[in-house]
Specification:
about 220 residues; 8 strands; globular; EC 2.5.1.78; Rossmann fold; 6,7-dimethyl-8-ribityllumazine synthase; 6,7-dimethyl-8-ribityllumazine synthase activity; 4-stranded parallel sheet; alpha/beta; 7 helices; two-stranded antiparallel ribbon; LS/RS; 2 domains; about 40% helix
Length: about 220
Amino acid sequence: MKSLASPPSLRLTPTTRHHLPSRQSSIVSCVIKSNSLSFSSSASGFASPLAVEKELRLQTAAVRHVTGSLIRGEGLRFAIVVARFNEVVTKLLLEGAIETFKKYSVREEDIEVIWVPGSFEIGVVAQNLGKSGKFNAVLCIGAVIRGDTTHYDAVANSAASGVLSAGINSGVPCIFGVLTCEDMDQALNRSGGKAGNKGAETALTALEMASLFEHHLK
């Protein structure tokens, strides 16, 4: 009887495989579309630093930047609260502010000046004007000059916090234009002297903030 021969045996030759660490073994595919970058991976892991950097660049390019305009102030309305104390200084600051408004086409009938006794009283009046809905921004002008007592610190701090609170509570930009100086020479230098006119600078800030709120933040 013919015997059946056993099938020939198969001999497998082992091959050497190099295993990559789990982070490197991930197969990451990048799909770039117009302005977005998406990642898909066949295993859990991390995208390469280069891919992450590309994604961040694309995201940054899509960020919208908004700023107020200083080109023209026509049609915008402004209130200016001025402290009568140290009037020799505050009058010069006021003149600088009004002159700047005119340069940027703000009409005289769109500017209203309100006088208060001192810088301490500016905040409450500014808040009232902001809440009235009649103005795009409120300028706050004053001058606090250091004396022999701590009264200077109390008034300066109260004026700053008052103007800040006025803007927050009214939702209308209230611009801080109160000088806080060591002596009268410093104050005069900053109200039209060699250090410029801080009233004019305050008006420029008011124009930009009014434009920002009017055209972008409504």
